[in-house]
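Repro:
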Amino acid sequence: MAMAGTCSPHDCVAKIGPSLLASDLAHLAEESKRVIDAGADYLHLDIMDGHFVPNLTWGAPVVASLRKHTDAFLDCHLMVSKPSQWIDDIAKAGGNMYTFHLEAVATDDLTAEGIIAAIKAKGMKAGISVKPGTPVDELAPYIDLVDMVLIMTVEPGFGGQSFMPDMMDKVLWLRTRYPTLEIQVDGGLSPKTIDQAASAGANSIVAGSAVFKPGEDARVPITAMRRSVEKFGNGRADDKLTPMPK
């Protein structure tokens, strides 16, 4: 059943993006192909600098290397203290979406508006995100400037954390006021938690551990999460949902 705090039906397309941080990093190209072939809509890359968050992952060279092996949409989530610094590099590497954190603007040379403009000037889509502790209404001045808003449902920095259901109030706040907005959620999403996110209005779902399970068919969690968005977000009847794989 739908969760408390349910949004009105919207027309935003369900999109599922496996988080590559949870993949077998020694086989990044193969893992990427596997989940795209399983129905994923895009690939999510967490780029962390060890300053904004207490973890260090990868940068533009890895994005560029992966681009040589896939035509998939590369959704780059920058958890860095100076987001404007890496725009050129990620664009040249082949990134398609560049999402930065509102909290990082305080340590950047540009304003949030300037960062968004710089991202778009390089031909990428612009996304903006907030950590769990940041009030969602602080995003309001930038909603009409960006292509997507990312609501973190865990503290950013590490994979495998538990989903934070109280973040769904933020998603519902956004969906109620911006019915056509692309709303992404990231952190602890799986077939077990997706209904809460879908009911609140999230349509773009980042999932790592739930998708990258050795020996398991990635089509199953990807399709299950898509069906949840279609049912609880788009308001489709059960017989109109994407069929589960056989």
